Inverse folding.
């Protein structure tokens, strides 16, 4: 009876974290370099049916660009640990610029997807309807950004690269002190597939590794999952009794 209750609670927690899936229509990759060292590759899946105009802007800035300016060579200029990293300023490369394929700014497309997880990619802005070229990647749930920043994608691969950038030293204004930049970018041919906006790798395991939870709580979570697995094994060996 006790085991069944634990399993019930576990499944309840999991079910509460389920959310709607959206179609990934395209994928964009960034090769990231820090100084003269290759840091890794970030692959971003784009929710092209949810935010087609925003996704088109992102794809073209990663490839064709505006007035010869693309994301290649631009820095990740800002990091707020356990919140987000920011980059993509193709105009000034310091967080002050704004350009898009539609003009200096373009309107907020919608706020359909919420900032309920790490690994979400959203437009950075300076207020309503001021989207341009800059984007953020969340490193935790950021509900205070709901109805303010347009989410248009999520990190599919490269969570460890995001967290390496996140943990670089910054100044008092959260500006990254080392030069970490996009050395290459492009589009990956993609057969559309569906993804939940939630990113469990970034939200749980990567947070544990990054020290988001108190150490004792981290161990408690790991022990809980080990207990569940052990009990499931016993349950299977016992023929479900």
């Amino acid at each position: 009876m006790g085991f069944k209750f634990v399993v019930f609670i576990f499944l309840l927690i999991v079910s509460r974290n389920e959310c709607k899936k959206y179609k990934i229509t395209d994928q964009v990759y960034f090769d990231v370099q820090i100084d003269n060292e290759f840091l890794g590759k970030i692959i971003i899946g784009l929710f092209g049916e949810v935010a087609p105009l925003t996704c088109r802007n992102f794809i073209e800035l990663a490839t064709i660009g505006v007035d010869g300016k693309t994301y290649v060579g631009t820095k990740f200029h800002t990091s707020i640990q356990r919140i987000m990293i920011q980059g993509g300023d193709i105009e000034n490369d310091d967080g002050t610029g704004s350009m898009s394929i539609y003009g200096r700014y373009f309107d907020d497309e919608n706020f359909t997807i919420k900032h309920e997880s790490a690994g979400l990619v959203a437009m950075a802005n300076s207020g309503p309807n001021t989207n341009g070229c800059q984007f953020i990647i969340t490193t935790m749930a950021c509900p205070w950004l709901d109805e303010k920043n347009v989410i248009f994608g999520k990190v599919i691969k490269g969570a460890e690269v995001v967290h390496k950038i996140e943990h670089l030293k910054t100044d008092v204004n959260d500006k990254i002190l080392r030069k970490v930049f996009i050395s290459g970018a492009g589009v990956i041919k993609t057969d559309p597939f569906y993804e939940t906006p939630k990113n469990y790798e970034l939200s749980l395991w990567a947070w544990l590794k990054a020290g988001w939870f108190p150490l004792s709580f981290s161990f408690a979570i790991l022990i809980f999952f080990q207990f569940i697995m052990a009990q499931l094994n016993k349950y299977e060996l016992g023929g479900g009794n």
